[in-house]
Design goal:
alpha/beta, Spore Coat Polysaccharide Biosynthesis Protein SpsA, Chain A, UDP N-Acetylglucosamine Acyltransferase, domain 1, 2 domains, five-stranded mixed β-sheet, five-stranded parallel β-sheet, 5 helices, 21 strands, elongated
């Protein structure tokens, strides 16, 4: 990305990291219209109501100190506009500067802003479910780029900081330091917090939020926590020092730290 900035545009130009999304999901992100030859950003719209472009903003930027001149210019403009408008909440609007809506839209088409389109994977992390998806992507990447960062098989098994009993099944989950998974428990699509314990034959399961595997440009949909008054099915999260007794099921639930459960729960937030 740094090499791209040095090779394109003026010395004081700025770069946005972009990627390709499908037509429907692109409207949930900042959309970029580019010059295909120079990669200059010609038009930028944050979360448009209609389709603008399938190139979206990844939220990673490369700026030079000159960006503060443009921020200052926007601030001065907001101050001047405030004096011409009604005073109601004007001070708040003048002091609030939005990078995407105020700065990028002004720089687009001025030869100052360029987009670097990554060909690697990218995922927005706004929920715990997307953290599991991103973790899987990185682990797969490390197999080819940094295998030394992965725990290796050896006599007695790899050295880990969790206790896993006989017959335990773990799939598409994150198990944090000090957790104990007792014999024959099952953990699917979940995050188990630090020093938590899951009893024998217990089942902790969530609903995956992966993007459509048949669409190469699909992204994770940012679901709201509640839908129609009910908790949206998502991954199960156990906070630190949570104890799950034997032979119970915890499904699509969020359990806050330091809870000792005594029965099964489904689609609940346990405070």
């Amino acid at each position: 990305m740094l090499s791209f900035q040095k090779e394109h545009g003026e010395p004081n130009s700025f770069v946005i990291l972009g990627t390709t999304a499908n037509r429907k999901q692109s409207m949930n992100y900042g959309c970029i219209v580019e010059n295909e030859e120079s990669n200059e950003v010609l038009h930028y719209v944050e979360k448009p109501s209609t389709f603008v472009s399938d190139i979206i903003n990844c939220g990673i930027y490369l700026f030079k100190p000159d960006i503060f001149q443009h921020i200052g210019a926007v601030f001065q403009k907001n101050q001047q506009d405030m004096l011409l408008e009604e005073p109601t909440n004007g001070w708040h609007r003048a002091e609030a500067i939005r990078l995407e809506q105020d700065i990028f839209t002004a720089l687009a088409g001025q030869g100052k802003l360029y987009v670097y389109k990554t060909l690697s994977f990218w995922s927005q992390i706004k929920s715990a479910g997307s953290a599991i998806y991103a973790s899987r992507l990185y682990l797969n990447q490390y197999h080819t780029t940094h295998p030394e960062r992965l725990a290796s098989n050896k006599e007695g098994g790899p050295k880990i900081s969790v206790t896993i009993g006989a017959g335990v099944r773990v799939r598409e989950s994150i198990i944090l330091h000090g957790a104990t998974l007792q014999d024959h428990c099952c953990v699917l699509n979940s995050i188990v917090g630090w020093d938590s314990t899951i009893g024998k034959w217990a089942r902790v399961e969530g609903t995956p939020s992966d993007p459509n595997p048949n669409d190469p440009f699909a992204k994770i949909d940012s679901e709201t926590l509640f839908r129609e008054g009910k908790l949206t099915p998502s991954i199960t999260i156990l906070g630190c020092n949570v104890t799950i007794p034997s032979e119970v099921i915890i499904l699509n639930s969020i359990v806050l730290p330091h809870k000792d459960l005594n029965r099964s729960f489904k689609n609940q937030i346990i405070l």
